[in-house]
Amino acid sequence: MSRRILPWLFLLPSAYAQPALAARDASAEAFARAGASRLLGVLGDKAAGPAQKDAAFHKAIDELADVPRVTHFVLGKYARTITPDQKRRFALAFRSYAERIYQGRLADYGGERVSVVGSVMRKPGDVIVATEISGGQLDRPVPVSWRVLQSPGGWRVVDVQFRGVWLAITQQQDFVATIDNAGGDVEVLINRLRSDAPVSVKRR
Amino acid sequence: MTLCSSSSPRRQALWLSAALLALCAPAAGVAQTLDDPAVRAPSAGGQRATQANADYDQDLDASAAPADPWEGFNRQAFKFNRGLDRYVTGPIGRGYMKITPKAVRHRVASVVNNLGEPGTAINDLAQGRPRAAGVTTSRFLINSTVGGLGLFDVGAKVGLEGHEADFGQTLGRYGAKSGRYVVLPLLGPTTVRDGAGRLVDTMTDPVALATAGGAKSFGMIRGGVTALDARANSDGFLRALDEAADPYAMMRSAYLQNRADMVRQARGGVQVLPDFDAARIEP
Questions:
Q1: Tell me: domain A6-193, CATH 3.10.450.710, correct?
Q2: Are A138 and A112 in contact (CB under 8 A)?
Q3: Residues of A whose CB is below 8 A from B253
Q4: What pTM does this model have?
Q5: Which of A71, A189, B161, B196 has the greatest number of CB atoms lying within 10 Å of its CB?
């Protein structure tokens, strides 16, 4: 590099401001490592039939994710105003919807490996675990972060980040916009999430 | 000057790909995590309660309500772009995916990414990251030679991991707010800041400038291949849009989060994440 240019580089900020790194959390990392491997194992199990795979996926989600917390979260501001009956029906519709679409998407990733590369404890019981998924059909490692919260049953996943996008946050903004545009009618969202909803209704 | 004849095929392709395919989806936007370990570490994320703090920055808030006062127009443009993708660009992209083995598509993606490295290096420098610029420049030199004109990412094999940088991110790194969200017909989603950044990237792309005096077909071929590669890469996300309750809201959320994360990486700040138990978002 030219000697004339070099000094000017020192006028530039030497690097990004470093984020304040909090402590790693070994137990959350262990949970994420085991959980991600288990999930990919279920999805990549070529010996299992579709029904077996569905059942195994359902069981894995129950044990790895905090489904009630996520269900509450994705409703956003409407979680406060929804009736108990609507909440029950929404929970059923959302569970079925989420399993249907995420199982379909994740199925493409069967056979890959998951490695934990770090974690940050936001506060006790609230940790973001950074992982890399590699191998299989991927030509380069894909970073994926998992937000895990402590619950009475142990660590549970509440959100997953891929390429900067948090899935539960995206889901919340999707659902809240849907209800907003229906004048606050939660029934419109519930009907749209049902597995028997016609595709033309879902495609706008 | 049309998009196709302008001087920056890679950046054009980002426009075109974003555009023609209702693209710019985060799946295609592919803001890869920077190689800097400190940046790669997951953001701790502040609590929503910190919003009252003077340090609170909505641009780093993953769940902030989007600034979308042009939503009526944006939804029409989004609908137009999706229609175009359904009947024109989608079939072309899926046809490309069908007849081309994944290994070949990886090589194509590698060439496309390699041609974008000089632009990335310039933005690295502009962001005050000479080390990252050095890594990017080294990658470009190694991959263009030993890597067979970028066909193989030899740089990554020797520990020089790639990343993306653009001028919208550079502006954000120095504090420019993202501004309003806008969906442009043909060009897809962006914000005022990132749209301006794209223009600058398009006009200053080093590879395009260096080849401007050469064969015109190079720019067109590069733009076309880049658009095709971007469409293939974003296919999963575009399929996911079909399953959303409100595809427009999903695209907006994903795009803005992806860009916010790019800026967070450049600034080194922490991402503000919502409290899962509060279930509170902006009214």
A1: yes
A2: yes
A3: 165, 169-170, 173-174
A4: 0.81
A5: A189
